[in-house]
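Figure-free illustration: sequence to structure, shown twice.
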Amino acid sequence: MARYTGAVCRICRREGQKLFLKGERCYTGKCALTRRAYAPGQHGQARNKKSSEYGKQLRTKQFVRRYYGVLEGQFHHYFEMATKMQGVTGENLLRLLESRLDNVVYRLGFASSRAEARQLVTQGHFTVNGRRVNIPSYLTKVGEVIAVKEKSRSLDKMKALSEANSSRPTPKWLELNRDAWEAKIVAVPVREDIDLPVEETLIVELYSK
């Protein structure tokens, strides 16, 4: 499975916004964006030029792609799927990304970052409707139950993660039972449920050229 293996803090600096790729560290003073709030590279501190319309579209697409941790080919595939769905294409795209199993695991507080959630899913710590699923890109559906595998619940790492992220708010479209280590997808996420400060229409405009 292809994935980005480079330094992740420079991604937040390039986008100029926190993508919360390092989990707990992103909420402390050690965050790279807090210490160096400018783009990486030798020209990072130079005065930014006025961005063109294409530049805004590209930066929006890159921000969303990196926020969810997917590569370019996979992101474009989601866009193609979104265009074939009923409704607004930009919102459909965000719904698909939110429905990824690794994102659901992160949203439920079973991981400190999406990268960590992706790793835990790949290692086989989660089940969907009682069956082990180790594919981070698995698209969850309404009615499905996501749970931590019974053997994994006793692991110190899983207990620590659940405890550390217990205060994270759970989206309305997820019904979490923390004591049972499981959650149910109760609705399709709507735009108001997705806390992503972007204009997704810019992505649609970019791919429509």
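We now fold a second protein in the same way, so the two outputs can be compared directly.
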Amino acid sequence: MQGAPYALAGQPTWGTMIYVGPTAEDAAERVRAAIGSRGDGVFTVSQLEHGVVCRYLGPRVSEGKALFVRAWDALRTSCQGKAANAPRIWAT
């Protein structure tokens, strides 16, 4: 089912991920590199003074989730220096 053309650009799925904490100067660029062309037209990244905001607006929940996982992996690695291991709850 397609959303109304005047609401959310007609897309049925949206999401926002906010990272707040120590931030590498190029954190947004690292997220964009991790996302690659998969995010063209559906995924945006904004870097703030103490955080990064990622947004998805597109046709599929699975696509949005996959892009957010890539973004989370890039942020965790570049900003916290820790390996990104998906929490078990994400598998449910």
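Summary for the second example: The chain has one domain: 16-80.
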